[in-house]
């Protein structure tokens, strides 16, 4: 047997094993009525996953992380990370829990939607509306504003750099106005979603660093999902997640839906 024949035999064995494995994973899902196809390919895993997703419009990828590191951070895994930064598709990232057996009985209680007032962040809303209704999930619209301590520090710094002006708003006044603006904005988004039949919806104004506040909220329950957008593409063709999205993806305890801007 030549080296080429031996290599082909090994490749065929791996492909058959992969196809069998995929069939076993698909079986319980098919039993619930989900239409599933399986495919085994050879080559660079991340590149092939990205290419497969690009074959059809409106594709969503679903992948898992590896677990937690010693520092308590989620280990993305090189393949998941490469796909996350390389695909144009919306991507669902789920935390791997090796101690739990496979089950199709998964509950989704709340979809957390971080919004900063920008049209980019609001591109998550059509996906949220499409998911919330059939799944019966509550939607929680969230905006994070600076804490009073952060505002005090910022104002004190600005006063050191310029002449004090009488009548300058106090940190408390700035915080009150910021919160009121955030609540008004969220209530407007809520009304628009309710007009589309989405219910129930709540709104929350959180304080502090955006990523930390979102992660803390997501970790309050195991049945939370965070739906958040990316910033766009870099010159190298990779998706720029933005510091907030990147930290939420890597530190949130539950699933995260990463949505690409249109």
Widest sheet, order of strands: 1-4-11-8-5-6-7
CATH architecture of the largest domain: 3-Layer(aba) Sandwich
| H-E order | HHEEEHEEHHEHHEHEEEHE
**Arithmetic mean of pLDDT:** 84
Q: What percent of residues are in strands?
A: 15-25%
Description:
With 262 residues, this protein is α/β, with parallel strands linked by helices. The chain has two domains: 1-42, no CATH class; 59-259, Rossmann fold. Helices cover 45% and strands 18% of the residues. The chain is built from nine helices and eleven strands. The chain has helices spanning 3-30, 45-53, 78-86, 119-122, 125-135, 148-161, 171-195, 210-218, 243-251; strands at residues 60-64, 67-68, 74-75, 90-94, 110-114, 138-145, 201-207, 224-229, 232-233, 239-240, 256-259. Strands 1-4-11-8-5-6-7 form a seven-stranded mixed beta sheet, sandwiched between helices. A two-stranded antiparallel ribbon has the order 2-3. A hairpin with a 5-residue loop joins β9 (232-233) and β10 (239-240). It is elongated. The model is unreliable at 69-74 (pLDDT under 50).
């Amino acid at each position: 047997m030549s080296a080429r024949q031996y290599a082909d035999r090994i490749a065929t064995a791996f492909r058959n094993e992969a196809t069998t494995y995929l069939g076993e994973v698909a079986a319980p899902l098919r039993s619930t009525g989900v239409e599933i196809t399986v495919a085994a390919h050879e080559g660079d895993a991340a590149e092939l996953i990205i290419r497969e997703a690009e074959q059809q419009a409106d594709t969503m990828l679903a992948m898992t992380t590896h677990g937690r590191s010693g520092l308590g951070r989620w280990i993305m895994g090189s393949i998941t990370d490469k796909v996350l930064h390389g695909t144009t598709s919306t991507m669902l990232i789920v935390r791997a829990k090796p101690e739990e057996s496979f089950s199709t009985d998964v509950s989704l209680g709340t979809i957390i939607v971080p919004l900063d007032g920008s049209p980019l962040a609001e591109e998550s809303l059509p996906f949220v509306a499409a998911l919330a209704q059939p799944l019966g999930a509550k939607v929680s619209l969230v905006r994070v504003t600076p804490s009073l301590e952060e505002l005090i520090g910022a104002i004190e710094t600005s006063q050191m750099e310029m002449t004090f002006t009488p009548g300058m708003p106090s940190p408390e006044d700035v915080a009150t106005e910021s919160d009121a603006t955030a609540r008004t904005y969220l209530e407007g988004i809520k009304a628009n979603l309710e007009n589309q039949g989405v219910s129930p919806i709540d709104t929350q104004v959180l304080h502090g660093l955006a990523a930390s506040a979102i992660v803390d909220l997501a970790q309050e329950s195991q049945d939370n999902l965070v739906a958040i957008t990316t910033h766009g593409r870099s010159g190298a063709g990779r998706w720029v997640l933005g510091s907030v999205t990147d930290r939420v993806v890597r530190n949130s305890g539950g699933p995260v839906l990463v949505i690409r801007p249109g």
